[in-house]
């Protein structure tokens, strides 16, 4: 479903130069990245996966240090799940908190509850578009299950 020609700011702002500097500073750290990161950043990744897969990988992999290329909010969960390991947020290109998504912070449990309770807002679309949009969602779930 394309609502606008846009992208996720978090995954577009990582600095290749700063990432390389982090790799030099922490040579034993594995680079783990969300697949929405740009290609020139993904080429440095030791592992690419959804947020839940990054969390799982960081727990199971024997490495003790990770450079994380996704929304910085996941670092707390990683530290909680593997307190003996070190996690470094990949820096954005600018001096900002751009790797913290302001849009994700708008989602709350209360809003989710109300949406499910009231079944609103309702999105309607032609069946052909719904079926076309279903394909990448199913593919994403297949990737998560493996």
Overview in brief:
The chain has 146 residues and is of the alpha/beta class.
Task: Label this structure with key terms.
146 residues, alpha/beta, Rossmann fold, 7 helices, 4 strands
Q: Could you describe the 3D structure shown?
A:
By secondary structure, the protein is α/β, with parallel strands linked by helices. It has seven helices and four strands. Strand 3, helix 5 and strand 4 form a beta-alpha-beta unit. The longest helix is centred in the C-terminal third of the chain and has 19 residues, at 127-145. The mean pLDDT is 82.
What's the SSE blueprint?
Blueprint: H1 9-12, H2 16-25, E1 30-33, H3 39-42, E2 47-48, H4 51-60, E3 65-69, H5 74-81, E4 86-89, H6 109-118, H7 127-145
Parallel strand pairs: 1-2, 1-3, 3-4
Radius of gyration: 17 Å
> What share of the residues lie within helices?
40-55%
The spatial strand order of the largest sheet comes to 2-1-3-4
Low-confidence stretches: none
| Shape category | globular
Tally of contiguous helical segments: 7
CATH architectural category of the domain at 9-106: 3-Layer(aba) Sandwich
- Helix-strand topology string: HHEHEHEHEHH
The percent range for strand residues is 5-15%
CATH topology of the domain at 9-106: Rossmann fold
CATH superfamily of the domain at 9-106: NadA-like
Q: On the 0-100 scale, what is the average pLDDT?
A: 82
Distance linking N and C termini = 25 Å
Structural class assignment: alpha/beta
Total strands: the figure is 4
CATH class of the domain at 9-106: Alpha Beta
- Characterize the biggest β-sheet: 4 strands, parallel
């Amino acid at each position: 479903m394309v609502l606008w020609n846009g992208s996720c700011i978090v995954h577009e702002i990582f600095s290749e130069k700063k990432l390389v500097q982090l790799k030099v500073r922490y040579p034993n750290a594995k680079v783990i990245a969300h697949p929405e990161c740009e290609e020139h950043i993904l080429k440095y990744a030791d592992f690419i996966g959804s947020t839940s897969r990054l969390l799982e990988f960081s727990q199971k992999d024997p490495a003790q240090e990770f450079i994380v290329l996704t929304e910085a909010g996941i670092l707390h969960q990683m530290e909680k799940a593997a307190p003996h390991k070190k996690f470094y947020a990949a820096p954005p290109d600018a001096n900002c908190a751009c790797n913290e998504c302001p849009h994700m912070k708008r989602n709350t449990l209360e809003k989710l509850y109300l949406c499910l309770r009231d079944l609103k807002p309702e999105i309607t679309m032609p069946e052909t578009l719904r079926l076309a949009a279903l394909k990448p969602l199913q593919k994403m779930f297949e990737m998560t299950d493996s």
